[in-house]
Amino acid sequence: MDVGVDNEQFVTSDEDIVELFSHEYTTVLFTLGNGMGCPVWFAELLNRVLCCNYVYFDGIRYARKESNVPELNQQIEGLKSFVFNQMLQRVKTINPVLEWNNQMSIRRIQNDTYRITSDSGELRSIKSGGEAVEEYTSVITGKLYVHYQKIMTSLFTSHNYSCKVILDKPANSGVTFMIPFNLTSAGVVTSEVNQITVVLGGYSNEVQFSQKGSSYDIDLLSGGILEFLKGTDDRTYYEVTWDGEFVDTLPVASDEVSDPSSN
C-alpha cells in the first residue's frame, strides 16, 4: 500500500508556499495468481472488470490507477502460467445512496468462503484460493422468517423474535443454523449467536428469542446467508437467507402438518 498526493502550489515573492489545491490518495498493488500462477485469460477478465464503474475488492471500492493494466510476470520458464500485478486506487468520492445499494447487492457468504462452484460444475468450498477442503454434491436453499414484537413498560423494554426456517426441499440430515444478534444494554453492545434446527423434513419448529435492553437486533444484512452445522456424512450445502423483513405471521411449510390440538 502506498499513499500519494496530487497538488499544485504557488510560491510567493517571500518564498512562502500557498497550496492551491491538494488531493491525497491511496494506491495498492493487487496480485492475481499464486505460486503456480494462472492463465492469461484471468488477466483479460480482470482488465475487463476494471472497465466497470463500480468494482469492489472485499467490500472496498477501487479503480485502476490511470491507464495501468495487469503486468505479466512469468513464474516458471516454459510454463504458460503467470502472475499479474495491477495497480489500484481506492475510491473515496462516493454517492452514499449508490454505495448503500451496491453494498446491499453484493452477495454475502461466509467470510472464509470465496466460491462454492468449480469450473467443472462440481460443488465445493475453496478457502483463500487453496485446494478444496469440503466437497458438496447438492445445494438446498431456504428462507429464514422472523416475526418481531417490542413490548415497552415503565420498567423495561422487551424485544421478542419468533423465528422459523423453511427449506425448498427436505434436509438430508439434521442441520442447525446460526442466527447472530446484537444486544445493547446500558450502552454496552454484546454479540450472541442463537440456533435453530431443522431435524427432519423441510422446516424447523418456531423458536423464540427474547432479551431486555435498549435494543436487540439481528446482526444479518438483507440477503445474508446463515452459517450452519450438519452431519459429517451430509454433503449438502444449505443456503438459507433472510430478506431483512419482518412478517406478521410465520408461514406454514408445504409439508407441514397442522397440530390437531390447536383446532
Can you walk me through this structure?
There is one protein chain. The model is unreliable at 108-133 (pLDDT under 50). With 263 residues, the protein is mostly beta strands. The strands form 4 sheets. Strands 1, 2, 3, 4, 5 and 6 form a 6-stranded antiparallel beta sheet that branches. A 5-stranded mixed beta sheet has the order 14-11-10-18-16, with no helix packed on it. Strands 12, 13, 15 and 17 form a 4-stranded antiparallel beta sheet that branches. The chain is 8% helix and 49% strand. The relative contact order is 0.12. It has helices at residues 40-49, 96-105, and strands at residues 2-11, 17-32, 55-57, 60-64, 71-74, 82-90, 115-117, 123-126, 132-136, 138-152, 157-167, 175-185, 188-198, 207-212, 215-218, 224-225, 228-230, 236-242. The longest helix is centred in the first third of the chain and has 10 residues, at 40-49. The protein is built from 2 helices and 18 strands.
